[in-house]
Specification:
Layout (H helix, E strand, L loop, with lengths): L1 H25 L15 E2 L2 E2 L22 H39 L5 H36 L1
Antiparallel strand pairs: 1-2
Helix pairs in contact: 1-3, 2-3
């Protein structure tokens, strides 16, 4: 009974945190020099490395890497690093989903063996916790990327 209460509290806490992050990410300030939405590429929700970089002088979809002072170049490097980190986190969500499916498959094929069923159940629980952590971290990184890069 106590384990169910802890799990329920943890689930509610994660839902509240994730909802707050989703609201905050939508309220992130949008800078005028950011790439237009048509220029923000992604593949399976994994962003391209240049998504948060400012637009070039000509107004096309070529990102400007910053040819100005040292502070602008450091900010550009930071934004590229954040975008790569966001891509890695989003790729990790796919790994967590695969682990959830793998644990479910192992649970189904355990054929009543309690040891195998317990291991499979633990795999699913660990993968679900990892999935929630990666989703929250990905939202935080996306928020920072939009705030810094535009």
């Amino acid at each position: 009974m106590k384990l169910q209460t802890i799990f329920l509290k943890m689930t509610v806490s994660l839902i509240v945190i994730f909802s707050a992050l989703a609201i905050a990410s939508n309220a992130a300030p949008q800078k005028a020099h950011a790439l237009p939405v048509r220029c923000q590429d992604s593949f399976l929700t994994i962003p391209a490395w240049y998504n948060y970089l400012p637009e070039s002088e000509e107004g096309d979809c070529q990102p400007s890497l910053g040819d100005g002072d040292e502070e602008e170049q450091v900010n550009t490097s930071l934004v590229i690093g954040i975008t790569i980190l966001e891509g890695l986190l989003k790729a990790s969500t796919f790994v967590a989903l695969v682990m959830i499916f793998w644990g479910s498959f192992k649970f189904i094929t355990s054929q009543g063996n309690p040891d195998n069923a317990t291991k499979a159940r633990q795999t699913v629980i660990n993968a679900a916790i990892g999935f929630a952590i990666v989703l929250i971290a990905s939202q935080i990184v996306a928020y920072v990327g939009r705030t810094l890069g535009g």
